[in-house]
Specification:
By secondary structure, this protein is an alpha+beta fold. The chain has a single domain (6-137), classed as Nucleoside Triphosphate Pyrophosphohydrolase, CATH 3.90.79. The chain has 3 helices and 9 strands. It has helices at 49-61, 110-115, 124-137, and strands at residues 6-14, 21-25, 36-37, 40-42, 64-66, 70-77, 82-90, 92-94, 104-108. The strands form 3 sheets. It has a 4-stranded mixed beta sheet, sandwiched between helices. Strand 6 (70-77) and strand 7 (82-90) form a beta hairpin.
C-alpha cells in the first residue's frame, strides 16, 4: 500500500487584549479556498515548529510573534494527503496584522466558533476544541 503524503503545519491561536482570536481566510484557488483558519503554514526543511510558525506569521501577517505553549495537535485525512496541525498560543506580537498572503483576516470572539464550524477546514475544528479545553484550565 502506498504511503500517503503527510503535511506538517504549525498554526497560531493569536489572542488580543480584548480576548478576541485572529483568523485568516484561505486564498481563492487554494485547497479549501475561502475558509477561515488559524494562521500559519507548513514546516520547511531545516525548521523546527516554532521557527516555521514565526516565519509564516511574518510572511502572512507581517507580525513578529512570541510563540508560547503548544495547545494541541491533530491529524486529519483529506482526500489526497494527511495533515498534522500543531497549534501554539500567541499573546505577544509586534506589528499590526495585515492580510499579506491570505485573502482576509478577522478578529472573532469565542462565541463565533460555535456558530461557524462549517466555515473552517475540517482539520481545524478538533484543534479548536483542544485549545478551548486547555485555555479553560490555564
Amino acid at each position: 500500500m502506498k504511503k500517503r503524503p503527510l503535511k506538517r503545519v504549525c498554526c497560531a491561536y493569536i489572542e488580543n487584549a480584548k480576548g478576541e482570536i485572529l483568523l485568516t481566510q484561505r486564498l481563492q484557488g487554494a485547497h479549501l479556498a475561502q475558509l477561515w483558519e488559524f494562521p500559519g503554514g507548513k514546516i520547511e526543511a531545516g525548521e523546527n515548529e516554532t521557527q516555521a510558525l514565526q516565519r509564516e506569521l511574518k510572511e502572512e501577517l507581517d507580525i513578529e510573534a512570541e510563540i508560547q505553549d503548544e495547545l494541541g495537535r491533530v491529524q486529519h485525512a483529506y482526500e489526497a494527503f494527511d495533515v498534522e496541525l500543531i497549534l501554539f498560543r500567541v499573546t505577544k506580537f509586534k506589528g499590526t496584522p495585515k492580510a499579506k498572503q491570505v485573502a482576509d483576516l478577522m478578529w472573532v470572539t469565542s462565541d463565533w466558533f460555535a456558530a461557524n464550524f462549517d466555515r473552517m477546514p475540517p482539520a481545524d475544528v478538533p484543534l479548536l476544541r483542544l485549545s478551548q479545553v486547555h485555555l479553560r484550565r490555564s
